[in-house]
Amino acid sequence: MRLVLGKSLIELGLKYRDLYVVDADSASHTMTSLFAENFPDRFVNVGISEQDLVGVASGLASCGKRVVVCTYTSFLMRAWEQIRNTVARAKLNVKLVGTHSGISNFGDGPSHQCFEDIALMRVIPNVKVVVPADSVELRQCLNELLRDEGPAYMRVGRDEDFRVYDECRCELGVANVVVDGYDVVIVAIGSMVSESVKAVKELEGLGISAAVIDSHTVKPLDSNTILKYVRATGAVVVAEEHNVLGGLGSAVAEVVVRDYPVPMEFVGVRDMFGHSARSLEDLRKFLGLTSSDIVRAATKVVRSR
Fold first, then answer.
1. In CATH, what number does 2-155 get?
2. What is the pLDDT of residues 269-291, one digit of tens each?
3. Is 176-303 assigned to CATH 3.40.1260.10?
4. pLDDT at residue 161 above 80?
5. Would you call 59 exposed, middle or buried from its count of C-beta atoms within 10 A (0-12, 13-18, 19+)?
């Protein structure tokens, strides 16, 4: 994911001569170092000072530049007040990219594992929230965000666990239907899209047909596509590598409870911090973020219809 982010920024730097990238002393980890090598005059390293990171980006955007801000997700949240009061209120053209999100930085423990960012960003007015499922979608979403005006936040994992797409389209605010089905719909983002695809195969063995929606844009949410499948299946599971409070599950529930209430289950982090783990899979099992957890949730909602 990080490598494709870095390479995509080079492509965008060639396309947009007004593109600046601002990093907080993490370029070798976020791979914005690739942009810095190619466009040193349009790269700014502010050091380990995330509030200044957003402040410098806001200044550049105020001067008419396109700006991509990039650092670890957990540390970018230090600048929430600057994002709210400077970027969002003025509707500045700043794209905030948080890397090493969710459980992807499994080895560095809870200080580096962020499960709260989607909730924090989706409550800020004017800010779009995008979570690509894999590196193919990341590239497309980043292109779309740079074409779009105004503030946005994109959440990126450290590495790619499982490729979902050979090719795809990322239209902001329009979800991708990855798998069709008629018994239950699984709405997922990020790495949980691939876990949902794995769950579909397990559910087939149980005689359950599951659809998978990749809701890459959490805000604005594609309520039309979600409600279409909720009405067709009568059961929904939301899967996200994020706290079950305030994230995609909350966004989907806000739509479902208002327009078409059905049995609903949430697969996500249960209001807790992570911990250091030997592998991504160990942490995924500890937090209940596996395909098997999705299968259990889907089976439960189908039986309770």
1. 3.40.50.970
2. 999 999 999 999 999 999 999 99
3. no
4. no
5. middle
